[in-house]
Amino acid sequence: MKFKGFLFHVSFLWVDGMALFPFILVKKESPGRVLMNHECIHLRQQLEMGLIFFYVWYFAEYLIRLMQYRVHYLAYMHISFEQEAYQNEANHDYLNKRKWWAFLRYV
Phi and psi dihedrals of 92, rounded to 5? Predict the structure, then answer.
């Protein structure tokens, strides 16, 4: 996988990585391939949905999952976008074969 975007090291970031199309923000100066692939999956999700709609859906789904699980970590891990990214982050060929709107199978 060759990343085509902008990578920024942000040492005070509260998470290891964050995708904000077309940027990936990372906490460590040299992020691993798995983290980069995870964030690239999010970039693809954002590209197909549009940044605003992606974050509206992400936040709405987080709130629904938070009501369902009552624990932040469980709510976060059950967001469809995160499920797709976590389940496929180690597959470095995933984005070459991924179909549009693939996150929907995790809803």
Answer: -75, 0
